Amino acid sequence: MIFGCIPVYKHTLSFLVWIAGDNDLEQFISQDLKEMTGNLSWIDVFALVDYRSSSSFSSDTLYRVEEDLIPLETFDEVNSGDPIILSSFLNGYRGEDLSFLVI
Questions:
Q1: How many CB atoms lie within 10 A of CB 99?
Q2: Name one Pfam family in it (predicted).
Q3: Strand locations in the chain, DSSP E?
Q4: pLDDT tens digits in sequence order for the chain, 103 residues long
Q5: 8 A C-beta contact, residue 15 and residue 23
Q6: Strand partners, 74
Q7: Alpha carbons 3 and 5: distance in angstroms, whole number
Q8: How far is residue 79's CA from residue 50's CA, in Å, rounded to a whole number?
Q9: CA distance 65 to 47
Q10: Can you tell me the distance from the alpha carbon of 63 to that of 70, in angstroms, rounded to the nearest whole number?
Q11: What's the pLDDT score for residue 60?
Q12: What are phi and psi of 20, to 5 degrees?
């Protein structure tokens, strides 16, 4: 899987979140994502979520985080342990200042 370039939005500061939730901590993903939403007028936030295959979610999802979660792309399965996929995710973004968090 190779991610396309995540579009540059309105800010120079961006925050990418990699959520490897295909484990026993998956129950906390919704709360983690909810805590990220809000008035984000000064930063662009994107979150890639790898859900457990037996999850109630139908597919792994790339979200844009604003007041709400905006699904940008869905995937059948993201191997969040694969360094090539991680590299593709990070290199797919073209921003000036970038922060990255793994959950």
A1: 12
A2: Peptidase_C11
A3: 13-21, 44-51, 60-65, 69-75, 97-102
A4: 455 555 556 667 888 999 988 787 777 888 899 999 988 878 889 999 988 776 666 688 899 999 999 999 888 888 888 899 888 888 877 667 888 999 8
A5: no
A6: 61
A7: 6
A8: 7
A9: 7
A10: 5
A11: 87
A12: -90, 80
Identity (one letter) of the amino acid at 87? S
CB 63, CB 71: distance < 8 Å: yes
DSSP label of 78: -
Q: What is the pLDDT of residue 71?
A: 93
Q: What is the pLDDT of residue 30?
A: 85
Please report the domains of the chain, with CATH numbers, ordered by start residue. Answer: 13-102 (3.40.50.11970)
Of residues 70, 67, 60, 66, the one with CA closest to residue 29: 60
Q: What is the pLDDT of residue 81?
A: 87
